[in-house]
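Annex B. Sample input.
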Amino acid sequence: MIYLDNSATTRIDESVVEAMLPWLRDNYGNASSIYQLGRQARVAIEYAREEIAALIGAHPAELIFTSGGTESNNTVLKSCSQESNLCNEVLYSAIEHHAILHPVAELSHQHLKTTALSVKSDGILNIEQFETLTMTNRTLVSVMHANNETGAIQPIEKLRALASDSLIHTDAVQSFGKIPVNMHALGVDFASFSAHKIHGPKGIGALFIRKGIDFKSHQQGGGQERNRRAGTESPALIVGFQVAARQAVNEMAKRTEIMKSAINLLRELLITAIDTIRVNTPLEQSLPNILNVSFPDAESLDGESILQSLDIQGVAASNGSACVSGSLQPSHVLSAMGCSIAEAKAAVRFSVSKDTTEREIRQAASSLFEIISALRNH
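Annex B, continued. Sample output.
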């Protein structure tokens, strides 16, 4: 099987597994306990916090561990609007992950003011629209750093300059480990991270909360994570995240070269082989590992058949976020970019990793060509 859905998750590196095993087998103490096993776990967690914080240009006190990007996103939105009472309106981009869109919809039902920000045809935020909006120090702006379906990188630094008094959150789950992600450079107040996109374990992530913000826990219980996220920490998962993050950042240049080469080859092969194919991933302002394509004649194509046929031929791809890939709904991201419903349903997202080979890319391109040709001639 050729796995070209690495935007959804990645294989855990052996070095990450090796680092996790001692915390599963022997050092199994609760980090909130005062006995030796507990203290060992606490030291490991705080060391991981220090290293991961340094990798994103943050102070260790600004980082709390969560179960992943979804929890981090929900926590920011709900705490800022409810427990912490920091905002009375939320601005969010129309192409956000459902971990933003769904809680925003829930908050809207609770009478919080919410506004969707439009994107241009290339999937990049419409800055001109953003400039016309009136924002205050009680406005929360949530715009992802890079889109999980198209790879388009968003102009977060420009948002900071235009919304100098507002709170800014960015979902950096897709971008971290693939492009430089620095909290000081981006100027954000909150940022979400997840380990399973960078060859780390599933079920662990982090939330950056800028120092000085009176941020109250959305999840009540114990006093873990500086009273900002109740629940017993998992040293094994946190250490696994630490090792994966370290390797992703240290090897970023090498990994980027491999992934960009694979994506460029795939783009070239598909454009050459398939008539009227549309590439939805920007050529320049995008992540090195994602290529999203669609077909203007999608009315005559069956998106589900495309993906199923790829799977039969040994190519694992998706048409959007893995969280909703089984719903047969058109991609809300491509719809926001102006694609028709049919085209948004028949799109294909390929995403590669540092382990993807040229042979796999060529086979995937050949398979998609055969499938589209067969469907068009049906």
